[in-house]
Amino acid sequence: MEEILFYIFAFLTLIFGALVVANPFSRNPVTSAMFLVLTIISMAGLFVLLHAFFLAAVQVLVYAGAVMVLFLFVIMLLDLKEEERRKVKKLSLVAGLISIGAIVGIFVKSLLATQPVKDLPAPMHDGATIPLGKLLFTNYLLPFEIVSLLLLVAMVGVILLSKKDLK
Amino acid sequence: MIESVNNWLNGLSPAQSLLLFTSIKAVVCFAIMMTMFAYTVVLERRLCAWIQDRIGPNRVGPFGLLQPAADGIKAFFKEEMTPAHVRKVFFTLAPMIALIPAVLNLAVIPFGSTLGKQHMVLADLNVGILYTFGIVSLGVYSIVLAGYASNSKFPFLGGIRSSAQLISYEIAMGMSVIPIFLFVGDLNLNSVIKAQTGTQLGFLPNWFVIQSPMTFLAFCIFLVAAFAETNRTPFDLPEAEQELAGGYNIEYSSIKFAMFFMGEYCNMILVSAMMVTLFFGGWTLPWFGLDHAATTLLGGVLHIGIFLGKVFLFLVMFVWIRWMWPRFRYDQLMDLGWRRFIPLALANILVTAIWLWWQSGK
């Protein structure tokens, strides 16, 4: 059952993700944004299958519910027209193919290097929030705080940029 | 007859019986929600008529009680207009999305204790409240997409207004409930209800709304944010008839309009259910031992009745406020959300944390 669900969600994630960047039917930025929302929701489904309920809920809450709404907001305010179909330059084609090849190479190499684990340990906490919080405030306190500092810096930066004249 | 049904039920495997009972519960929940939606509309029309010294719809059926049926039939049979200038796919999609969040969120609301062996909640998630907020936050898409797809001026302004409003108040709403979970120590909604059983001072209910000043403040912020999230007066700026002529739903007619309408009322029911669960003890009453899981069938039904009664009181309040209060100005709305409520909610979290820390040290 879980395996079937995994394949369904993985398939959906890939399809929606592809439709974000290369939609054959529409080149409307709003359509792309909506497909990105669907990608995020199907990824939340994958998190649920990993028993990471907290991550799944936060994924929907933060990315699908807040970040993507802001994306839509900006697209609507800027009134972006349909993207024109650009001609593919030879140089960019070559560069793109090389980078795709490199990424595939890394994937294949790391996949081959992993050994199939015989007996996986059962998930320790089953996605409970209390152990997660304890870990964040003990073992991973420094990275956690640094990330929040990064967000603060970004916020100050945005305020600085949006102020026209600084007093 | 009953015996053969009983035998058949006992013969089911756990997975089968889970599937059976969950689908029954889901269907019944949905039916109850739709009935409540229909009669909240009647209530709204009768109550507003009463407030404005009119009579209101009283022609269809006894006391106008069949009005929802008449309205429903009208909505189905009206001609459906799709203006030529709209973006068709999103235009059709938006009203459908309007209903989804409210229905999905029904899954985690504990609407009763037990009925027989069944727990009266569809999914007892240990991140219940985060799930609710996640789904609620998806509700904004229907309005934004409706505004965008209509491809004309006033719906667009309504869509823009609503996306800014919903995002702003979501933050205040999310942060206002954190003190509750600091008190409970768990995100599960059943644990929240368990923490509200018993009495204080001998007779007052131990509900979070009056348990401590911090939780009372949390309730106040949550209540105001709930009004903003459901686009109800005094925060109904996305539709603001006088300025936007109806906002995001101008171009919609017939059943598509009815679906937006349904979405708004179902969201109201859902937010009321959340407030009942978080601050008013859910299905419990502190007297006559009604705050423990029911052992008899009658007790179980009584608990569901208590829950629905509390939700109903909140719905009356929602309706009442709509006909009593003028609308906010947009800058006042943003000011209230960002410069009053968010700092207040943050301070509330801090004070609660310090209080609990001090308590634990005693």
Count of DSSP helices of chain A? 6
Share of helical residues of chain A: over 70%
Main interface: chain pair and counts: A-B, 24 and 31 residues
Q: What class, by secondary structure content of chain B?
A: mainly alpha
Mean pLDDT of chain B: 83
- List the quaternary state of the chains: heterodimer
Strand order of the largest sheet of chain B: 1-2
The name of the CATH architecture of chain A is Up-down Bundle
**Measured on Cα atoms, how large is the radius of gyration of chain B?**
22 Å
Poorly predicted runs of chain B: none
What distance separates the N and C termini of chain B? 61 Å
Counting structural domains of chain B, the number is 1
Number of domains of chain A: 1
Description of the structure:
The complex is a heterodimer of chains A (167) and B (362). Chain A is mainly α. Chain A is built from 6 helices and no strands. Chain B is 68% helix and 2% strand. In chain B, a hairpin with a 3-residue loop joins strand 3 (199-200) and strand 4 (204-205). In chain B, 43% of the residues are buried. Classes of the chains: A mainly alpha (167), B mainly alpha (362). Chains A and B meet through helix 2 and helix 3 of A and helix 5, helix 6 and helix 7 of B.
